[in-house]
Write a structure and sequence with these properties.
With 319 residues, this protein is mainly β. It contains two helices and 28 strands.
């Protein structure tokens, strides 16, 4: 008989004592929206097994999870809503109207705000997570906004637009657009350095990644990467940034200081959006055409597993 893990012993003892186990209490889980299946696949990041499938709407895309890991907010593209998923009960419990064709979503570090990019309206909706109500919206210059990402301090949101060559910057306090930064064609994934001093943007058509100084909102570096670059994740140590290349079926590791590509790691077909475990040791990559999530061991810079999920996984959120 295989040995019982310390965590499983702890969970079993808690269950016997009548404890209510939330996903956060049980440890980090990865939540994967599946566009083609209408579900969230829930992956235990310790065992790398799917432990639940939760209905999440007609075509779930952008997914964020509250800091207590009790609630997920998921954009539903055909419904034009931000769906509310109770992760403890494992069910869809409500929806918030957004507009036509919402896509990416971001959540502030304190969990107060969700920002959802709405493609057809060229705007970003801001939802209060406590009241589950839309509080305000900001029109952006970019057409077809896809992602909305909060800075670590929650003061700004950067927005990428599919039909454009720029990134919009929203000032949350004034509820208005602060500036626009020209980048390569079809900007997609974005991320901030842990200290918030730099933002990173992948431009899909240009197949380039841009490093932006957030004090001046100017490009201070760029690097040619793989074909159809899209997803971006910055490591908690601030020394590495990861980009998924949809056309090359791989993830590249970039040194944030020198901009040199340190490693190229093969993954599944059409790698898209990604997320890191809190300890920064594993990267989970949604691979749409494979119907799987590729797991990368960052201590070895190699893929260790493909986890089958639903049809057309769009991204990953981890809490």
């Amino acid at each position: 008989m295989p040995p019982v893990s310390p965590r499983l012993k702890l969970l079993s003892a808690a269950l016997l004592a009548g404890a209510c186990l939330t996903p956060a209490w049980a440890g980090p889980h990865a939540y994967v929206p599946n566009e083609g299946s209408g579900t969230l696949s829930v992956i235990d990041t310790e065992t790398d097994q799917v432990v639940a499938e939760i209905p999440a709407g007609k075509k779930p895309r952008g997914t964020v999870v509250t800091p207590d890991a009790r609630t997920a907010f998921v954009t539903d593209q055909p419904a034009g809503t931000l769906n509310v998923v109770d992760l403890v009960a494992g069910k869809l419990v409500g929806s918030i109207p957004l507009g036509t064709s919402p896509e990416g979503a971001g959540i502030s570090a304190d969990g107060r705000w969700v920002a959802a990019a709405v493609e057809e309206g060229n705007e970003v909706m801001f939802i209060d997570t406590a009241t589950r109500q839309k509080v305000f919206e900001v029109k952006v210059k970019g057409r077809n906004p896809e992602h909305a990402v909060f800075s670590p301090d929650g003061k700004t949101v950067i927005v990428s637009a599919e039909e454009g060559e720029a990134v919009d910057v929203i000032d949350v306090a004034s509820r208005s657009e602060l500036t626009q930064i020209p980048v390569g064609a079809r900007p997609r994934g974005m991320g901030f350095s842990p200290d918030g001093k730099f933002a990173w943007v992948a431009a899909e058509t240009a197949s380039e990644v841009y490093k932006i100084d957030t004090a001046s909102w100017k490009i201070v570096g760029q690097v040619k990467v793989g074909l159809r670059s899209n997803g971006i994740v910055v490591h908690p140590d601030g020394q590495r940034v990861f980009v998924s290349n949809g056309g090359d079926h791989n993830v590249m590791v970039i040194d944030t200081r020198t901009l040199a590509v340190q490693a190229t790691i093969p993954v599944g077909q059409r790698p898209w959006n990604m997320a890191l475990t809190p300890d920064g040791q594993k990267l989970y990559v949604a691979c749409g055409r494979s119907g799987a999530v590729s797991v990368i061991d960052l201590t070895k810079s190699e893929k260790i597993k493909d986890i089958p999920v639903g049809k057309l996984p769009w991204g990953v959120a981890i809490r």
